[in-house]
Amino acid sequence: MNNESCHRRYVMFFIAACVAVLLPVAVLNYLLGLKSLGGGNVVIEASRWQQATQGITYAPPLSANRPFKSARLFDRLPAINAMVFGSSTMMGVTQAVFPAGTTTYNFSQTGNELPMVLGEAEFMQRAYPGKFKLVVVPLDWALGFIYRAPAAPGQVTVAAPDANAAAPDAQVALTQQLQDALSLPRVKNLFGELTRIARAPSPSAAFSAMFFAGTGEEYRCADGTPARDFDTIFRGSCTGFRYDGSATFANLEPVATRRVDTLIASAVVPSSKYAVDLIKAGGVPHPQLLGRLAQLGRDLRANGGRLLLILPPLLPGMEQAFLESPQLGALLKKTKGDLSAWAQSANLVILDAGQSERYGCSAPEFVDEHHALPVCYARIFARFWSAGGDAAKTTKLPAGLFTEN
């Protein structure tokens, strides 16, 4: 009986200790989480700040950036004559990679698949005929986007966000919010912020600013660019989007060279996320998507513009490993062959950057297998323009697949 009582007291003491540790963490992260839900007012405030300063910022949450990107697009619209569409794989494309006379906004968004990308590009072409001299659209085979059948037809509308719009996660259940508050990224971020607060000249003021103030103070990044955080996670790190719409990726670490072989080995297996759609489609791009891309190209040409397609860069050696794979090589070759033949018939150029090593990119110029940093994209576009792929209506390159040898 005594042993049972001791055990019970031990369990109760253990539970109490866990509650004493976790409860403050949950409460503080819950408060931060509420500030990270975003909403129309925050989006517009962040967009106005960037328009005025040309600094680095984003509106929370970072993973749902369509409202912020839409606000920025319509702020920038009078000044631009080119657009970059796509998913986060295109967020490394900066204004600096384009020739003089081309002013672009990078409208790429997290998780934005090709059917939505097409809808956005089609809408902008219809709404502003003749405005865009260049439109860049990615064909992500590694993420499976070019193989997936689009949903039921429906026109996409691109519009600036409503200031009174609810936060995208405003209806998230309390249990989910608490679960998020105790997630590892949130806990790590919290302890990092508490450490920063403890080292601040006035810890109480720093604590109040973090947990109760609306937004962070303006600060400077290493290159002198102004930055301001409208979220609480990654605060002070210059994480977010530049004035041209490209991402800084400042919250992510570059790929270490020693990890490349491991990452590629994991990618080139039939069950990997990079192979599932390739296998399911038999390497055949979806014809409906290709048909819409061909029509978009014709519409742009009719209005004095040009559509440039790109196979986004992958970690050096990764695509080559796919091509050499007994299970996957033939399928990827089928994809490349079909795209080349289709592009020639549609009078379009596809910049094939999948084998990024051919353009001089290295592993530390990626943050994972399929997200290239701006320095890699700069190498790729520099080679493309120098080969004759100018940004004007016409190009010296023949229609089809362009690959650096």
In which range does the helix fraction lie? 40-55%
Order of helices and strands: HHHEEHEHHHEEHHHEHHEHE
Instruction: Report low-confidence residues grouped into runs of 5 or more.
Output: 166-172
CA(first)-CA(last) distance: 80 Å
Please give the order of strands in the largest beta sheet.
2-1-3-6-7-8
Question: If you compute it from the alpha carbons, what radius of gyration comes out, rounded to the nearest whole angstrom?
Answer: 24 Å
Category by helix and strand content: alpha/beta
Number of E strands: 8
Mean pLDDT: 86
Number of helices: 13
Largest sheet: 6 strands, parallel
Sheet-strand content, in percent, reads 5-15%
Quick one: overall form? globular
Summarize the structure.
This protein has 405 residues and is α/β, with parallel strands linked by helices. The protein has helices spanning 2-35, 40-53, 66-76, 114-127, 174-181, 184-199, 203-211, 260-267, 276-280, 287-302, 318-324, 329-346, 374-386, and strands spanning 82-84, 104-106, 134-138, 219-220, 226-227, 307-311, 349-352, 400-402. Mean pLDDT is 86; it is low at 166-172.
